[in-house]
Amino acid sequence: MAEISLVDVTLRDGNQSIWGATGVTTRMVEGVTPALDRVGYRALELVSSTLMATAVRYHREDPWQRLRAARDRTPNTKLGFLTTGKRFITFHRTPDAVFELAFSLLVRNGVTRLWVIDPMHDMEGAKRTAAMAKRVGFDEVVGGICYTTSPVHTDGHFASKVAELDNCDDIDSVYLKDPSGLLTPDRVRSLVPLLQQSLSTVQLEEIHSHSTTGLSPITVLDAADLGVHTIHCALPPLANGGSHPEAQRLVANLRARGHTVNVDLEAMAEASAYLQRQGKLKNLPVATVNEYDEAYYRHTIPGGVQSTTRRQLTEIRRPDLFDAVIEESVQVREDLGWPIVMTPFAQYIVAQATLNVISGDRYSQISDEVVDLLRGDFGPLPGPVNPDLLDRALSTKRGQQSHADANDVTVEDLRRRFGHTLSDEELLLRAVMPAAQVDAMAAAATSPANTLRSLLGSIGAGSGVTHIDVSSGDTRLSLTREPGKASSR
């Protein structure tokens, strides 16, 4: 048997899968990361561009501050970022210069591990993304093979695609990503050895499989037996359900099979208890173990996208449409040529299915994102496309526009547009998000509560400041830090 490492996905994928990507706040990150750092994880999957956007949009929080908060509290654990290499926050192709700025800022703010997974299996594009990441300072880049089921996604297809990553000096290892939780123990036993045989210079080291069908807690054990020695998992209340296997139970099961897992279970329990308290205070859902559902293999919509879709339908006061939208997504995916149902294509499929259901006339309206997909902005689709849908899409105003050259936009262009005095971090957010949302975040940063929070932080542990006096009119606030603690009067 082998020594198994764990990657914690609670704050990124757990949050997206169970809490609709909006549950985790900077305060939660500050509160839970010290315990997570003591567990002994191989890495923490901390963030994606989606979570950076929700920090701004829903919490008016600076996502860079959140990254720094995690960095400062996890000196022993690598922090990781997940990307497709095609988009950053926006749902359209992101220019190369903007991506390189984003990667540079992630490294600057403490993120040093990258997972790059191209849903269209554009491996040349993935290798270019890996090279960019290494160029700006990422320590480790993990290339992904993305699993799904369809008439075109055979074992041979996956083996040929993973082999394309084998000759890339910028990719340190490979992982098998199962965003919809479709892997079964039988498929793992046939697929993993084939993938391993297709690699000679890098190894298949990790597996990432959602618990949507209830099978992943068993599937990942079989993967470990086959030589995949790093497993992604999560902590309650953000484990199981549409998320990932529960870490504590996974450790027990791995040890029962004879594997070694060197982690601190007490630190896991402490982190889990903190998140459970926070979830209860905020009335956030608690994930439970899913029963096996054969029908899920029809639509394959990931748990995080389902959670987000429920929230968005509720926001437009049409939660009753959820089942119809999910069913319509089956036809949409087939018509689009069987793209893998993961971000951003899962969102494209569900959004188009929603338009079809609401209008009652399939493809009478076609989203810009689907037009971009059909005209090849994200690479060739894996299977045949419905010709009527393609004709409709390419006849739209969007479909007739020329393809934008991703290399045309430069950082200097962004400076001329948004100003030369902005920080790099704010510049990037303004380049990819609505101005009103970034304005609201900036305004919240100067609120009285945040000002007081900054003052308290300035005399916290590790600071050389021991005393602060603040006065306004006849009001005076005095803060004093005594040896080993901070106090106020």
Question: What can you see in these coordinates?
Answer:
The protein is 48% helix and 12% strand. It is α/β, with parallel strands linked by helices and 489 residues long. It has 3 domains: 5-281, Aldolase class I (TIM Barrel, Alpha-Beta Barrel); 298-400, Cyclin A, domain 1 (Orthogonal Bundle), CATH 1.10.472.90; 458-488, no CATH class. The strands form 2 sheets. It has an 8-stranded parallel barrel, surrounded by 7 helices. A 3-stranded antiparallel β-sheet has the order 9-10-11, with no helix packed on it. It is globular and about 75 Å long.
Structure in a nutshell:
The protein is an alpha/beta fold and 489 residues long. The chain is built from 22 helices and eleven strands.
Q: Main traits of this protein?
A:
3 domains; 22 helices; 3-stranded antiparallel β-sheet; Cyclin A, domain 1; TIM Barrel; alpha/beta; 489 residues
Unreliable parts: none
Overall domain count: 3
Q: Give the helix tally.
A: 22
Please tell me the overall pLDDT.
92
Strand order of the largest sheet: 1-2-3-4-5-6-7-8
CATH superfamily of the largest domain: Aldolase class I
The major β-sheet equals: 8 strands, parallel, barrel
Percentage of β-strand residues:
5-15%
Helix content: 40-55%
The CATH topology annotation of the largest domain reads as TIM Barrel
Structural class: alpha/beta
* Morphology: globular
Total number of beta strands: 11
**Termini gap:** 58 Å
CATH A-level architecture of the largest domain: Alpha-Beta Barrel
Radius of gyration, in Å, reads 23 Å
CATH class of the largest domain: Alpha Beta
